Fold this sequence. Notes:
By secondary structure, the chain is α/β, with parallel strands linked by helices. The protein contains five helices and six strands, in the order βαβαββαββαα. Strand 4, helix 3 and strand 5 (about 145) form a beta-alpha-beta unit. Helix 3 crosses helix 5 (about 180-205).
Amino acid sequence: xxxxxxxxxxxxxxxxxxxxxxxxxxxxxxxxxxxxxxxxxxxxxxxxxxxxxxxxxxxxxxxxxxxxxxxxxxxxxxxxxxxxxxxxxxxxxxxxxxxxxxxxxxxxxxxxxxxxxxxxxxxxxxxxxxxxxxxxxxxxxxxxxxxxxxxxxxxxxxxxxxxxxxxxxxxxxxxxxxxxxxxxxxxxxxxxxxxxxxxxxxxxxx
Length: 206
């Protein structure tokens, strides 16, 4: 029996095929494609678990950051809405290989319910990926994530978390980004974090 879920999920794929850069220096890895592949797989998994799942765009191209934000803001739901924006990080301009590695999670500025969600995601990543560096702003509750006023996180009526998953200009990270096994582990880990967030907001309503 599928249990009723307490949150609605909005998946936000990164950039678009038409956005310059956003790839590995050798062109093997493309961020827009990686992100859309993960969104497609996660949507199937989460819907099978009983979640309502939406995507900010079905286009291969960049729809515009404001359109992403406005879609999430205007989506009608009687449950808390969680937007997850899936990206790959970069330390340079994409023209050469760099040394930075690891994972970072972002929310908008200020302490909000988004920070609660980010904490669950960070802790799950730390548990499931001890081989990767999980970058944190501070090792304290509600302060673990980095904070930026990214447009997609600045809408109304939803919790927004942006994940920078590994570096697309690091050779070792790109190997992981191209690995079916690592990508499946990422999806499974994020699903576990979503389940923890779902349980948290279920208790919050009681």
